[in-house]
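Slide 14.
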Amino acid sequence: MNLKDYLFKAKCLSAGILLSGAALAGTKTGPVKFIKEGVWRGVFTVSESQVPFNFELKGKDPQHAVFTLLNGTRRDDFHVELIGKDSIFVKMNTYDAALVAKIEDDGRLTGEYRSLVPNFRGNALPFTAEYGKGYRFVEPGKDVAPKADLTGKWELKLYSKEAVPASIAVLKQTGNKLTGVVMTVVGDSREIEGTVQGDEFALSGFTGPSPFIIKGKINEDGSLSGEQGFGIYKNIKFDATKNNVADLPDPYKLTFLKEGYKKLDFTFPDLKGNSVSLSDDKYKGKVVIVEIIGTWCPNCTDQTVFLSPWFNKNKKRGVEAIAIGFEQKDSLEYAKYTLGKLRDKYDIKYDILFGGLADKKLVAQKLPALNKFIAFPTTIIIDRKGEVREIYTGYTGTVTGKYYDDYEKKFNKVLDELLAEPEPTAALKTTETSNTIKGK
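Slide 15: predicted structure.
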């Protein structure tokens, strides 16, 4: 256990943060409690809404336990630690948040989803969980026949005082069961799961970052009206119409270099505090992939899951990669912890740098060659001459199907083409040799 986690747990023990008001430490006597193996149903309370989620526990004790969040076909595994005699601590892997809960006498869990970011004053989300309940929204035997089949692509119109990106939902319905994903130019919701009951629908997702819910009604004309909820952050109302040819703006055309720029330049510290620049000898003559990420960002994690094994397989071909992390606290020491966790979990062999606080305006200031900065993550591909050749805004994960397949296909095509180009020094030597033969 690292010092940061230890101190947080100690704070939990002393402050009694659970809404139940019970101390986490338990008593000095009596048997140690642990949660039962099997499927569970949890419910977050977000404002006046309830956001259900499902998880499974395997292992009869903390040393062997695996806590798995279930979302459609997606599985996310986490480690469980016992605090005192009757409480658990589930760190959300590379996300600086945790589920902290007391095991009640009747076997239920009562607790909170809480940010672990130092001095972060965001609201915690209380939750309860019951053993043996595998349903999400509606108990078995209580389904109501759906009034429509929502399978297909839906174009969402969002209502917000702030600018919000265009959204598309891709849904699949089988009977009452509904699964799918919501996509925007900045990323996707990951897989969400839910139900259609009469003229109402609801889907939710919880994979480690703050939970997500989308719910609403099926209107008489077949359109949808509803609301999206983003955990401890915000709710946005929407209308939606089915449009199987709807599409998002081209992610390769949203972010680009300002007029007069061909190259990108920056200097940031790595996790040892050493300054690293794109102009360093290490990158000269190489194809370089620059990723702008944050460990708090689920789409950044998904992009890392794609890039890290790709890089490890292809690094001998003349390619380098750099991840620039912008974190929830403007502290290199904090970034060493968060970005170090990301590096270790996903076997990252390329350089990881710390860019500063996670703020889009700040990113734009620190990378002034960009016309603007829209999304974490953003992928910048640089050729052997050091010139920017492609910029991809956001990331579409495997759940998006064709969108992911198209991304992977184009990514590999672009990299293959750039890696096939000669190194500038090699091209220069070829020219010099040719000129010598010709007597020039």
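Speaker note: DSSP finds six helices and 24 strands in the chain.
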